[in-house]
Amino acid sequence: MFKQIQNRLLISYLIVLASILGTFALAVRLVYAHSLKQQLTDELTTLGQGAATSAEFNHGQLEVGKDIPVKDLIARGQALQWFDLQEQLIAQQGKAISTLPFSSLEALQVQLSKPRIQSVTLPIVSGDDHRKLGYVRASQSLEELDENLRKLDWGLGSGIVMALILSGIGGVWLTRQAMYPIEESFQRLKQFTADASHELRSPLMAIKSNVSVALKYSDGMRPTDVEKFEAIASATHQMTDLTEDLLLLARTDQAANPNFQPVNLTAILEQLVERYQPQAHAKQIILHAHLAQSSWVLGDVAQLTRLFTNLIINALHYTLAEGRVEIKLSRTGQTLLVDVNDTGIGIASENLARVFDRFWRADQSRAHWEGGSGLGLAIARSIAQSHGATISVSSQVGAGSCFTVQLTAMTGMVKFVKPPSANTGDDQAHLT
Ligand SMILES: Nc1ncnc2c1ncn2[C@@H]1O[C@H](COP(=O)(O)OP(=O)(O)OP(=O)(O)O)[C@@H](O)[C@H]1O
Ligand SMILES: [Mg+2]
Q1: CA-CA to 221 of 20 to 30 Å: which in 24, 227, 241, 346?
Q2: Band of pLDDT at residue 405, cut at 50, 70 and 90
Q3: Residue 340's closest CA among 415, 432, 404?
Q4: pLDDT band at 10, cuts 50/70/90?
Q5: How many beta carbons lie within 10 A of that of residue 336, not counting itself?
Q6: Which CATH topology does 2-141 take?
Q7: Whether the model pTM is above 0.70
């Protein structure tokens, strides 16, 4: 349970960190790309202005100046194009010649097809009378800018990954440190429950034996006193059950690696169905079983018996007369499914998530001890978890409930180990 919380904490922490770093990287990328483009536009404008002043107007013709440093243009991946007022190309120099159709209305053009080129268009204006003589288009290849952005992307990407890996390692340590005191106090609380339940056993046993002695020799007693002793005996019995349940819960919770043995699940269920047949009969309930043969699991016989006992008792208890309770054990590959199905009162959908909580009972208004303490399903889930199994429920009010336990079947051949209560009848079992 604590491992799960720790993992969830760590994942949430990494998701938050990744979102913060991602947003930061995106902002850096946008600002950097914008400033590079702005810088390029400024450079092209300066280049275009120089080219515009070098153009002359002779005999009604636009002539391009000869003093343009072509070598520099080629080295920088730049190009210049001159156009007359009819937008006809007059001359061009340089390497990165834009193939986009010229338009005097577009001051800034970007050629998206490879090679990517950015162009800035400026008017050529006469120095004397400020007449417009033509246009100059200064272009620059975006190869270098794209390469710079690619390097930035790699840098930011690998920086984020490195930061996440380091934060993940640090996060594992941090979450462990944070969970440690919670885990410790939880363990202490469990130990206290186990100790308290254990310590209550002896005084309860003493009360129980004294009351039974008193009831055994009740001949001279007044009838009202006998009733009082019977009430004490009943309350003591319930208290003993409750302390036993609490002790069992504390123990199954603590048992991280119990010494499990091969257990024949079919035999356990057959035995339970037989044991509860008279109770079902008395309530006019049909108790039926469909059990896959020789289904073995690794576990504790007493605990698994308790798990299914709790489910069967509940099914019988919460099913009205003439109802039906069906136990089904099926196998698919290595998965064993045990369904305890009843046609009982059912559980409201809003309560389904709470049925496995300790001391939770659907009808809270009933006297606390009537029917049980609300620990049966909590014990069932605790046992299932300690066996690496899962327990789930589906139910419909008025139609019935189905509790399903999913376990993993054993494989290979096991030597028979005589369980305390499940009589398998074999000396050796061959498993598939
Ligand atoms: N088969 C069922 N049909 C309908 N309601 C059920 C069924 N099984 C359990 N419930 C509901 O879930 C509650 C919790 O069950 P749980 O077995 O934990 O406690 P309990 O039966 O009340 O007492 P006990 O500790 O003696 O088992 C029950 O009080 C009942 O309201
Ligand atoms: Mg119960």
Answers
A1: 241
A2: very high
A3: 404
A4: very high
A5: 22
A6: Beta-Lactamase (3.30.450)
A7: no
375 lines ligand 1 (CB under 6 A): yes
Give the integer Cα–Cα distance in Å for 293 and 265: 9
The answer to whether 2-141 and 150-254 have equal CATH topology is no
**Most informative mutation of 245, 276, 306, 318 for ligand 1 (most atoms within 8 A of CB):** 318
3-class DSSP state for residue 222? coil
Q: Report d(CA 192, CA 196) in Å as an integer.
A: 6
For the domain made up of 150-254, the CATH class stated in words is: mainly alpha
Domain 261-430: which CATH class? alpha beta
Other C-beta atoms closer than 10 Å to the C-beta of 260 total 18
Atom of ligand 1 nearest to the CA of 315: 1
- For residue 142, the 8-state DSSP code is S
Q: What is the pLDDT of residues 239-282, one digit of tens each?
A: 999 999 998 888 886 655 567 899 999 999 999 999 999 999 99
CA distances from 59 to 53, 56, 62, 117, 205 (A): 17, 10, 8, 34, 126
